[in-house]
From TrEMBL:
<protein>
    <submittedName>
        <fullName>SDR family NAD(P)-dependent oxidoreductase</fullName>
    </submittedName>
</protein>
<dbReference type="InterPro" id="IPR036291">
    <property type="entry name" value="NAD(P)-bd_dom_sf"/>
</dbReference>
<dbReference type="InterPro" id="IPR002347">
    <property type="entry name" value="SDR_fam"/>
</dbReference>
<keyword id="KW-0560">Oxidoreductase</keyword>
<dbReference type="GO" id="GO:0016491">
    <property type="term" value="F:oxidoreductase activity"/>
</dbReference>
<keyword id="KW-0521">NADP</keyword>
<feature type="region of interest" description="Disordered">
    <location>
        <begin position="1"/>
        <end position="44"/>
    </location>
</feature>
<comment type="similarity">
    <text>Belongs to the short-chain dehydrogenases/reductases (SDR) family.</text>
</comment>
<dbReference type="Pfam" id="PF00106">
    <property type="entry name" value="adh_short"/>
</dbReference>
Amino acid sequence: MPAHVGRDGVAACDHDGDPPGGRGRASSDGRVQTSQRARDGRRDSVTVSLVTGANRGIGLEVCRQLAQCGHDVLLGARSPEAAERAAAEAGATPLRLDVTSSADIERAAAEIGHLDVLVNNAAITYDTWQRASTADLSVVREAAETNLYGPWRLTQALLPLLRRSGRGRIVNVSSGVASLTGMGGGTPSPTTRPGRR
């Protein structure tokens, strides 16, 4: 049951309001255990969505709305504890996923099995008021790893699953921070999120 996100950021379901199916959970080592309905191979009747950086804010709300639309939602977060709490609140399956960790990305790609929607939401911000000439480049590098390279690597790793689904979708979430219109003498945050506008 696909959902479409309108300009107001609210998801609209493409179904008659049927309640969502059973939710999954993660094992103690972070492995994904999807709902019984998905494990039984009835994937044509369920849309599986992964949302990164979803333990709070926009990501958590996207998870809630997709779950209300009947999706089996994988809620990705760096902290397993935060993922568990947020997933319980959103009706989703928690997934320990740090987009800067190649090991986490490889594990997720190997264990998910089926995926229809990837929402790249994970991001961090840093003090963009710093001058470019004196900025702490380790902080800028961390933002680039999280905001640019992490979603890029994750998308590459999950692309075979999305293609196999026959209805795969990738959603890249961004904000005004990535706008090129406000660039001044500070550190250029848009360089850590190009293409995500």
